[in-house]
Amino acid sequence: MEGQRIQSLAMRIALEFPEVTQTNPFGPDSEVFKVADKMFLLASDVNAEPVITLKCEPEYATALRQEHESIVPGYHLNKRHWITIAGGASITDDLVQDLVINAYELVVESLPKKKRPARATVHDLRIVTADDPATLVANSALFDHQVSAEGAADFLSRPGHILFLALSPDGEGVGFVSGVEMRHPDKQPEMFVYELGVDKDWRRRGVAKALLGALRGEARSRGCTGMWTGTEAANGPAIATYQSMGATVDTASVFITWDKL
Ligand SMILES: CC(C)(COP(=O)(O)OP(=O)(O)OC[C@H]1O[C@@H](n2cnc3c(N)ncnc32)[C@H](O)[C@@H]1OP(=O)(O)O)[C@@H](O)C(=O)NCCC(=O)NCCS
């Protein structure tokens, strides 16, 4: 994506968050976005090239710089805590959106509770039952692919197949977790966490933790003694989420898949 587009996308996303202000303290050519008077995004020109500079955790910043040629340490800012992004083929809309959300959340989390903007939280968590496949079809946007009525009904009606949906105050689905109870002749029952996903606009508000907590409670009530899942080693948000729910991460294991049978 080109630098100009990165800037306009980042600025549009930043203005959607609660209590964001846009000012020009460094002159008319730099747009500064703040929450509670703390900057999280700067859109400016560096050597006549349009760039954005964002707050970012040091470890994540290092990983991003290794992966993307056009992401460099924050220009004129603390190089450990800020990144500057210029136009580049590997910079996608999704990446820009994720990084702007991340920057905003980092600043909000660093604020004293009283200064944090009020924001909507999950209103309801519920298990989707076999007689309600339409709910999954209606919330297809949360899944990797369009959900079919048959696929939803099939999953929901199978023993030990569980799906929790998190709902916004408007009743809109904002996240889900699915699990499958596994049995083996020599083992105690365990819960496999099949999929976990939260709508981009609702991330970093504890939705995934609430969903995993609900699945864990359900697993316990079914007599499961453990829960497990897998994810890519580079999926930092997923690993952080599982760890914050008490999971241990086994880095020595590998995934084996047969793509075609
Ligand atoms: C992974 C995912 C489900 C997390 O959802 P979420 O609702 O934003 O997570 P939560 O707000 O409940 O956060 C849970 C914990 O993880 C941490 N975390 C979440 N996203 C993070 C990020 N991007 N960077 C660092 N920490 C992060 C939170 O700080 C929180 O930790 P804490 O309780 O110690 O403060 C979400 O990012 C997502 O849908 N990703 C795409 C799909 C995916 O990768 N699914 C999982 C693998 S199948």
Secondary-structure map:
Blueprint: H1 3-16, E1 20-23, E2 31-35, E3 38-46, E4 49-55, H2 58-67, E5 71-73, E6 82-85, H3 93-110, E7 124-127, H4 133-138, H5 149-157, E8 161-167, E9 173-182, E10 190-198, H6 207-221, E11 226-228, H7 236-244
Parallel strand pairs: 10-11
Antiparallel strand pairs: 1-2, 2-3, 3-4, 4-6, 5-6, 7-8, 8-9, 9-10
Helix pairs in contact: 1-3
The structure holds coenzyme A.
Coenzyme A binds next to strand 10, helix 6 and helix 7.
Short description:
With 261 residues, this protein is α+β, with helices and mostly antiparallel strands.
CATH homologous superfamily placement of the largest domain = Gcn5-related N-acetyltransferase (GNAT)
Mean of residue pLDDT values: 92
Main sheet: strands, sense, barrel:
6 strands, antiparallel
Small molecules bound = coenzyme A
Q: Into how many domains do the coordinates divide?
A: 2
Q: Helical stretch count? A: 7
Helix/strand structural class = alpha+beta
CATH topology descriptor of the largest domain: Aminopeptidase
CATH architecture of the largest domain: 3-Layer(aba) Sandwich
Elements, N to C (H/E): HEEEEHEEHEHHEEEHEH
Contiguous low-pLDDT stretches (5 residues minimum) are: none
User: Which CATH top level class of the largest domain fits?
Assistant: Alpha Beta
The backbone outline, from C-alpha atoms, is: elongated
**What Rg, in angstroms, do the CA atoms define?**
21 Å
C-alpha termini separation: 38 Å
Strand order of the largest sheet: 1-2-3-4-6-5
How much helix is in the residues? 25-40%
- Total beta strand runs: 11
**Share of residues in strands:** 15-25%
